[in-house]
Amino acid sequence: MSDPLVAKTFCSLFFAALDDFMLKVLMVASVFSIVLDMLLASPEHRSHAWIEGAAIMVAVIIVASVGSFVDWKKEV
């Protein structure tokens, strides 16, 4: 049982935010996008085929970070 007076760390809040179903779906979609784009792209386009998947992953990290930061500021 956790002590209600102890604040949660930012990392624990970040990983809790990543537990959201939609963020999990987006993370899987970004990995599939990177893998499929790298496998199916022509050799000339492979150097920038990963950008869409990486952009999805960056968006997921930003959303989880902002939500975690807001929750962390409420805890402190």
Keywords:
0% strand; 76 residues; single chain; mainly alpha
The poorly predicted ranges are none
Amino- and carboxy-terminal Cα gap = 20 Å
Strand content: under 5%
Main sheet overview: none
Q: Report mean pLDDT, rounded to a whole number.
A: 91
Helix content: 55-70%
**Could you spell the SSE succession in H and E letters?**
HHH
Total strand count, please? 0
Taking all Cα atoms into account, the compactness measure Rg is: 17 Å
Compact summary:
By secondary structure, this protein is mainly alpha-helical.
Would you write up a description of this structure?
The chain has helices at 10-17, 21-40, 51-75. The chain has 76 residues and is mainly alpha-helical. The chain has one domain (21-75). Helix 1 (10-17) packs across helix 3. The chain starts with 9 loop residues before the first helix and ends with a helix.
What secondary-structure arrangement, pairings included, does this model have?
Layout: H1 10-17, H2 21-40, H3 51-75
Helix pairs in contact: 1-3, 2-3
